[in-house]
Amino acid sequence: MSATETEAPTSGAVRTSDLLVAAASVRPRPSPVNRSRGSRRSPSRTSTSRWTRRRPRSRRGRIFRPAARRSVLERAAVLLGERTDDIVATMSREMGATLPWCGFNVHVAKGMLVEAAAQAYAAVGEVIPSDVPGLTALGVRQPVVVVVGIAPWNAAAHPGRTVHRVAAGVGRHRGAEVPSEQTPLTQASIVQVLHDAGVPAGAVNLISNAPEDGPSVVEALIAHCAVTRVQCTGSSRVGRIIGELGGRHLTRVGLELGGKAPFLVLPDADLEEAAAPAGLGAFMNQGELRPSARRWERHGWTPARQRPPSGSTESWRSSSGPSDEAPDTRDLHPSEESTMSQADDDRHEIRRLIENWALWRDAGDWGRFATVWHPRDGRMSATWFQGSATDFIKASREGFENGVSILHFLGGHTADIVGDRAVAQTKMTINQRASVDGVEVDVVCTGRFYDFLARHEGRWTLVRRQPIYEKDRLDVVDPAASLTLDPDLLNRFPTGYRHLGYLQTKAGFTVKDGLPGLTGTAVEQLYGEGRQWLVEAR
């Protein structure tokens, strides 16, 4: 495969692993540390043709017989066991996972190799009933020739992924493993084990790519005439793309996808017994697993002393509110489950965008701060600024470099999503420190960010941000100091940001009047604009 990594933080040594195509190492171009390079669209077509040209003379296994296949897989299991420590260390560095989790992955991968070896002499096919007396009809499974496996990053050596796909087909069909851009060295280690164990030339291939080249490389592989099946383990979002490409090019696709899994506690469950697997489901591998629990639901359960009569359908109340606020998944149609998973993914992405806004803006990370905005339509409205996102970034940067201290803290969040548009509200606190009449003060203003968002080129972006100012206060930093405020200036501003407006006016800013507060015409107008924003998305 093509990737580099720093082996030790102090040494600066870099290890490079090549692409493996048709049993030949392909040297990649030089690439920076922790960046996966190697295949763009045209090279992947070349590589695919390269391994498909080297087909065995017999598709019925006369060259690579079952005994040889079993021997190779058993040898691979031994090699994997011998290299466990190195693979675990590589996996931990790439994933950021704990050593026990990495060790578990390698242990189970070794078991899958042993099991695949045991299947070498398993019967392949079935007897088909025949209407002809004395005639026996057999259905014999044939190799699918070329299989492309797309592996995930969060369980890079887990069975059912790299190991299971390639081990099951050794000597039967050819395969190309496409590792995650985040964990290429781990998956290269597994493929190298199989190669060193003696798999036939071209039976197992490894093709990596840079993240930005992923869509074109994967489409080239799926579209190739020699590829008859694609196996993908990953997110629902990526799975939809792979499925669409498979349908477009008439390539069979197998998908193992993950979303936001519910953890259900039924009425007769022991809650103390349920607590342990609930915690495991949420936090195993830091929650980076496809079946990780994202919400917990107790259906029909109340404490024993308050349990409803038998047959009652009364449901519980969660800490987040009444039970009718949590979706009941028991009778969902599969398409509804998929829609819920996509909506959860969208809400997670929007929440992350809003958190990045606050973090990058307060840290002065202006390059990344610009990425949260819609590149053409982004606009910001605040007490001291109203205009385009580009001008807001410029003004914020100038203030930051001149010592203006404005910090943002976030709280609860909700988002309404319709198609490619969304309206999000997030509880926030604005904290600004400045000098007023020679006295250093802090102003704390609480409210909500009311955000208009749109999906642009496949990702959510911020189109418009309008804070809602609910209330504020002014505190003198030094308790021994005293400050008398000008009541006429203070009363110029609405209740929600009168102290913030006072401080910013004293600091030389021009503060806009009439911005939305907790109640009033301005906030009702903003709500109406938000509803219209979503209506236009339909």
Structural commentary:
The structure is a single chain. The protein is an alpha/beta fold. The chain folds into 3 domains: 3-54 and 63-121 and 142-258, Aldehyde Dehydrogenase, Chain A, domain 1 (3-Layer(aba) Sandwich), CATH 3.40.605.10; 268-276 and 287-317, no CATH class; 346-535, Nuclear Transport Factor 2, Chain: A. Helices cover 36% and strands 24% of the residues. The protein has 15 helices and 19 strands. It has helices spanning 41-52, 66-82, 84-95, 99-118, 162-169, 184-197, 214-223, 236-249, 271-283, 334-363, 366-369, 389-401, 487-490, 498-506, 521-535; strands spanning 3-6, 14-17, 19-21, 24-26, 126-128, 137-139, 146-150, 174-178, 204-206, 229-235, 252-258, 261-265, 293-298, 379-381, 386-388, 405-418, 421-436, 439-456, 459-476. The strands form 6 sheets. The chain has a 6-stranded mixed sheet. A 5-stranded parallel sheet has the order 9-8-7-10-11, sandwiched between helices. Strand 1 and strand 2 form a beta hairpin. Residues 1-14, 30-46, 51-62 and 301-340 have low confidence and may be disordered.
